[in-house]
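User: ok so my PI wants both of these folded by tonight, can you help

Assistant: No problem, let's get them done. Here's the first:
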Amino acid sequence: VQSDTAQNYTIYYSASGPGIDQDPKGLFYIERETGNIFATRAVDREQYPSFQIICFATTPDGYSPEVPLVHTIRIEDDNDNAPYFTQDLFEFSVLENSKPGVVVGKVTAEDRDEPYTLHTTLKYRIVSQNPPVTPAFSLHGDTGVISVLLPQLDRELVSSYTMLVEVRDMAGQPFGLCTTGTVVIRIEDTNDNAPSFKQSQYETRVEENRVNVEILRVSVVDLDEPGSPGSGAVYEIIRGNDDRSFEITTDKNTNEGVLCVVKGLDYESAKQRILVIAVNNEAPYMLAPHSQQLSQSTSSVTVHVLDVDEGPVFKPCLLRIDVKECEDIGTNIGRYIAEDPETGNSEGICYRIPPGQCNWISIEEKSGEVRTIKVLDRDVGEMRRGQCNITVLAIDRNGKTGTGTIQVVIQPGNKNYPRITKTEYIMCRDRKPICLTAQDGDESPYSTPFVYRITDRSLASSWKITRHNDNSVYLSPKGDIPFGTYDIPVSVTDNGGKVGENYIKVTYCDCVTPTECAEDTRVFGAGNVTLGVWAILAMILGSLLLLLILITICGCCGSGVMHRHVTDDCANHNLIISNTEAPGEEVMDHNIIPLQNTCDQGGYGIKTGDQQTFEMVKGRGHTLESVKGGGHQTLGSVKEGGGGQTMMDTCRYSYSEWHNFTHPRLGEKVHLCRQDEEQKHSEDYLLSYNYEGKGSLAGSVGCCSDQHEEEALDFLDQLEPKFRTLAETCVKR
């Protein structure tokens, strides 16, 4: 560096490179007088690839007339570093019989010199191979990739190769720097060698009836790598083992085949058995190049069966006996016998059943006949399972025993009658069909489908049955029938022909919903009916009112002077409210029935008898008859005596006679009383009572005071239950 005005020069360092953290001061110096820059020692490019220095020019008095000058110094590379491999040892593996060109692996090397120069251009080559046979692999000079070169790699001949490889810089030129490395290539095994038996024939012996016993070991030769799937032997019996009496397995430690007997052999059936055994490997066989397919190796084994005195044998070993349900005790259900294998017959063999088993059957000691010792019912206790396995022992003369099993299976029987689950129904005026459903405790085929039939001919003419499904039908009337209760006998026949008789009680009621009729039935039903508190109070009050009326009538009629006329229901002022003790207003009406002395007491009264019936006492010479002429009935019955003279009965009317007279007339009056002058129903004829039954058709008496209709008492022919209850209560009192 030079300056026209300055004479003294100084520099400051600014180095860049791997050694930037070190102090590079002292690597360069500058002459103060000339400005020449010199290196003080050798500089390593790999340590300091480049430097920057700042030069200052100053006058003797220290003045800097010029701007500092920056210089960059780059260190040029020299081929002073040899290439090196990234690993000390390269290990690869390849399958034997691999084709040429198959990549085995890749070696890599590095060089610290400047990249992309001849100093770092590397070349690879194989220096040597061990064993020193025909070269088996090739090494790509630029990439370092190792490939298969030999057409046949045989692990059985050479299991591994060791190669010395070299890497050289300067593109492999002789003056380049180089380094060597080691590569080991292991040849992996394939199953290219089939196993073969050491012997083509074997012989062995075994006693009859021995099971799970080893009788022979066989071995094979396999050139593949021991312990690999290519050498692991797999044995099989390919002929002579149709009954599966033998089994052969592989001992993993020795690779031998172990032949065992898993099912007892019978000397009497076969004195020797000849087996053919074959062997394969665990891995599939791979045919080597330029070789022929080998046949499977086989060997024959002759097994001699030794005779042993053995016990009886049941044939079959498991006997199934089907028993019908509920068979009688002692029923012969079968025979189970055993044979002596030595003689082939059953002579001298005894049978018995060991204790501790289900106690269903017994076996006859000599003949082997099997009989039931209890009634077998699938609905009882342990028999619900439906079957039981029973072990039977057979003992020969020498005390040898054999065992067999009897499987007793209880077959379902037709022991239960089909029955209808619900037998009481309520049918309203809509006559909706009733669904009858039957159940049968038996199983198929002794249960469904069921056949229903009405057994009563008279009821069958008015009721019909319609099929719904296999176990249900619909019951409905054929036409109009009167209200009432019907007990309909219905027979149900199951699929086995067993008939169950059922009685269906149908209450045909004048209702909209069955609950209405059910309430009436609960309240007014005969027998065990429970009345409510309010109903009992109403009955007591009614009885007291009736008693008061009777006393009043009797008091009025006892004088014998005053003639009271009883008007019919349509007379004006039926009920007269009076707060005085004076008699009521005399009413003259053509409907008046004079009340005269009757029998001994005059008037009409009520008498209760021992049979809880009450009768109305009739007056002598007078009857309750209509004043409208002879076309109306009289209350009494006129009997004709001898000589054409009419004779009155014994001065009494029964309750039924009084009922038949008053009921139709009162019904018509009440019906007419419900209407006003415009033929509209009055609003007060239906009153609410503290009673849980239906309202009376008689309605209220308030609307009947001023009505004048024709006399008709048909209503009393059908009294409501509460009137009958009131009457019965009065009779009892």
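One down. Here's the second:
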Amino acid sequence: PASQVLVVGCGNSELSEQMYDMGMCEDIVNIDISDAVIRQMQERNASKRPKMSYLLMDVLQMDFPDALFQVVLDKGTLDAILADEEEATLAKVDRMFAEISRVLQVGGRYLCVSLAQAHVLKKAVEYFSQEGWVVRVHQAASGGDKQQFVLPIFVYVMTKFKKVPGSAPQILEICPEEQDKPMRVESAEQLVEAVKDRQHYALLRSQLSKTTSGEQLSLDLCSKDSGRPRYTLHVVDSPSMKPSRDNHFAIFIIPQGRETEWLFGTEEGRRQLAASAGFRRLVTVALHREQHYEGMAGIQAELSGKVMELAPPGLPARQQVPFLSVGGDIGVRTVQHRDTSPLSGEYVVEDVKGDDKCYFRRLIFLSNRNVVQSEARLLAPAPLPGQKKRRKDRKKPGPAEPPSAIDKSYLCCEHHKAMVAGLCLLGSPDPLPGQHPLAVLVVGLGGGSLPLFLHDYFSQARVAVVEIDPSVVEVATRWFGFSQSDRMQVHVSDGLDYVAKLAAEAPAQYDAIMFDVDSKDLMVGMSCPPPAFVEKPFLQKVKTILKPEGVFVLNLVCRDARLKESVLATLREVFPLLYARRIDGEVNEILFCQPCSEGPRGAAELLTRARALEGALRQPGRPWDSSYVLADMLQAVKIL
């Protein structure tokens, strides 16, 4: 209350009057360049507020002595002056800031109320941070359930410090509406982006409160402590659903580790989920790895206020919004290993619980965190975090549990099943039960489940694996049960170079060649394989090392329709026979290419070959059921 306050560009705003009447401060000096406004405000306040003054003065050239004020308050003046980024306008703003700095005491504050357009915020932050001031941006509270404005209001708090010679570290902070503790940021650009996030969220809230959306909108809610994403929300509207009192709005918590499944990880899947749940607006919530959650009740308490900001129009007052999940729990996710590969970037190995109570181990590259790179079923799940064992002697802790064993007999990935099924296209109807060795080349190791399956269940198979990333070989060996033998060798090499070398040295040596290699270039509409692997000169080299009646199996993941047609056309130019197998619910399409002009003659021959392959898979003494592979074979290949 004892501070002397300067209000610049006061206009006829009631702000100073309200501060005076509330007892916040009385020694307030208001300035403006409008003579009419100053006379009006002097007449209105002379008798009611005798300690407050109104002066005709330009903020660009003030008559006050240096260091007179403890506070300079600006409500919208900077926004009005900085209407564009012309050179003359920026020069005026520099004069305004210099004058504010001159009349403000060290330790004093410049408070600027603003809509925080990007160019306005950036200019203010850069100017004062370079002067050595502490810069903090507050998001003003919206006040009540209904937003007064579509866009949020911000207050820049610039605290004046003496400028230190040399390069002193910048102190830049943002204090969002929903928390009191400010968050430190590293640069003016980061501060501008953080404010933009708040503005976009306000626009999203406004849009969702007025109408249903045909598109699925998504947003990340970040941890207050780390600033990292904690929840990913998708808003799914079903406007065609008939409204009733109880079907307006619900929240669905996706169990940990299952966010990549088709039902939860695709637009069509979420649309079906909303329809089956029976709500006109469903918000799905995915939980992020390496975040701690206090069960369903804890998540509900944490999210209740925020998700209500996404409520649909027409939601009855005080209606309870249900939180739904699968089986009523939040699932299990345990990160077993995290590291960084020079080639593939940061990755994690994690164990998750599936919908059938089985546990699975997954390899995920964090550059594309919504895609499971490799997956294997665990024979015995590791104990859950915090799970207590029944022990007769509870005083002594038991020994650590050994790592869970990998179930090598089970192919988790549907496209791997289809790739194995493609072996029934091999020229001999009975090539596998021991007549002669089967030579297979697999490009792309991942967790190693595909080459392991081929090695373990085709006793005559000799498998060569090409993997460009040594870190992936290490992960497959340590965490996915992969091992080499006299019948399976890994070559750490670029697949392009390896195939080219083989084509030059030893043509026609493989019965089957399988490509299951991902692209690191996320800007291309084809995530598997990299474009160079489907260029005609390289495909001709693949054909060279393939036996005349062999099969080339390619895992194609392409969302770009034109690019996909181009790839198929190129494949047809090289391989006379081309079969395709779509993977239900996935983008993957498995292509079977053969260099010979004649394939199986009709469904009967294909069925015979499939049963021969299935017979080869059923090895004596191996306790597993290959019927799921056989079922895939019987529908595996459909002629394009």
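The chain has four domains: 58-203, 211-313+320-324, 332-378, 414-618+626-639. The longest strand covers residues 546-558. Good luck tonight!
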